[in-house]
Amino acid sequence: RSYVRGIHDTKTEALVSEIVDFEFIVTESNIEALLLEINLIKENKPKYNIMLKDDKSYPFIKITNERYPRLIITRQVKKDGGLYFGPYPDVGAANEIKRLLDRIFPFRKCTNPPSKVCFYYHIGQCMAHTICK
């Protein structure tokens, strides 16, 4: 709708002038729509879409499948028993959500079990109490 109404910049006018045909695909969710868009852009390499054209994969937030899980950001989704959430449009958005989740849920912050109680355990932001004791 935004392409057929209003005043547009030169790039958008050029894009609209080249439209011959279009189709729309109904998806079940926003995430499914984003994944479909990413795949179609990688497949068709449209001239005017530069944001999703690069070959970078999109970030996900992962809850690791460890005894005391950690919350991490990754660009690779693996079948490793972890829970993956995303994709996010950029790493900044993923970091912002991770920061919020870290404050709400006491996921383990340390990558290697410390030899003594970690700082996050003392402030109630780490549930790995048996590792940290």
UniProtKB/TrEMBL annotation:
An example Gene Ontology CC term for this record: excinuclease repair complex
Regions that span the bilayer: none
PROSITE patterns assigned to the protein according to its UniProt record, in alphabetical order: GIY_YIG
Organism superkingdom: Bacteria
Gene Ontology biological-process entries: nucleotide-excision repair
Domain GIY-YIG: residue ranges: 1-50
Descriptive protein name: Excinuclease ABC subunit C
Originating species: Streptococcus pneumoniae
